């Protein structure tokens, strides 16, 4: 597929997506390609698990596009029309990096514990033994598989497989990450959510570059990056603010992208509301507030008709809904005329302290002692808030079409739009909420110094890992964002994931909901779009479908949500420490929440998302006692995940 632009002479090339996302999985040979469109089709459980029930790895596929002298996309370059040699490097720096205490770019960092070196008992040159350098690999040609281009490093004396590179039938690069193996070289258990000494995992990240020749001409090529993250246990979910939303906001603020014009209801407004309703399948609180037949079921035709109307008829409805969103900016700064208020009439800092404001998701400064912090809970990106403010004023494109179908394959997207679609698809399924520290990437991603252009990371001119192992015994906010610091000076392999929890399983098993049960046992929540809190299980789903049962019984089954982590073999009565350690070896036993469609079912949604567990876990599920698991669930309010610091404004 080629562009029809008049200027079709290719003078340069660029790799897309600018950041690709791999995910670990314990299937030894099977994998799937990660999302390449922003609204992919739902898949069956076998898409995500192999025949043994093991989780397949998510691969990241990279493509090269030829650009003309105006920077416009001409066509995709493949092995059919170009000579392409791929280069990649992977590393894991977690154990040689610093503890995560809190995002270092927020005011609360001054009152949190200092970020000291992990494994601080390992001194001097010996610290290089903590850095897992998977090395560099080069690959060209079509269908290059067979595990010959692997990234293998060492943690102390332990060999660690970080992934491998392959190509598809058109010579596109396909990157695979680790198998989800985490271990402690001393045999010690994990004791905390994020900073466990002696531990390693097989997540990683690193640069992707390519040598490209077309018709004998060697082209300059914009590089890319790949990140290996934990599994996605809710593949059809998006958080209210995604990583794409955050990166887009950063690029607009830095003038890397133009200011957005009049927002589209379908593409800019509706997704914000729709995502909150969709979270009903992964969190019981969202199910009650935004779910099926709830007061704010934003997927209902009644709501869609009102939300998409530009007239004054529903302006007060739009205004009232907007006022529910947490907002750290003044209303006047966003859209003063729409509200007819002055900045002094509105104190956004105080309003943002309320856990009842939308979205019901924890923020970067989540802490039991941080009730005076405006960053205790999540806010939308500024561009999202600006779009909503214009929507309130009726200044938006009323393009809602109930029959609209988003492209489900990249081949359905015009070639000139494919790079943007690949970029959005990769980042839309990554989180930009609660950098505590996060799922895929964390707080450095909101700093413009990380980027060479919109969505594309700046590569270091000094890529040798041994030159970047630490910046002293403690990493302070000033050092972190300094001109020669780890953010602004350009990225090296392992430089993105080193800020994350070690091992990733302990954080995934710790990021839950309702830490303050006096408020609500399910709200606010951390990362339900990637790590479910509660789910409609298979047993209740089948009860809902059984129309021979009384409607009240079916409704009770529909409203009941199982605690997702109860699928761990350690059982529902386990302590917090037992759960985070069990997660290390049994992360594949947890359910994947996937859509299931049953037409003709009355009184319930046609499509419901259901937690689907591997077959070998069925016997354990049958033994569960719902009353027992609710009564014995660990109290997480006392864990260090929820007690980072005491904030005084």
Automatic annotation (TrEMBL):
InterPro entries: LodA-like, LodA_C, LodA_N
Top-rank taxon: Bacteria
TM stretches of this protein: none
Alphabetical list of Pfam families matching this protein: LodA_C, LodA_N
UniProt cross-references to CDD domains, sorted A to Z: LodA_like_1
Extent of Basic and acidic residues compositional bias: 624-643
Start and end residues of each L-Lysine epsilon oxidase N-terminal domain: 16-228
Region of interest called Disordered, as start-end residue ranges on this chain: 624-649
Domain L-lysine epsilon oxidase C-terminal: 370-527
Protein name: L-lysine 6-oxidase
Organism: Pseudoalteromonas citrea
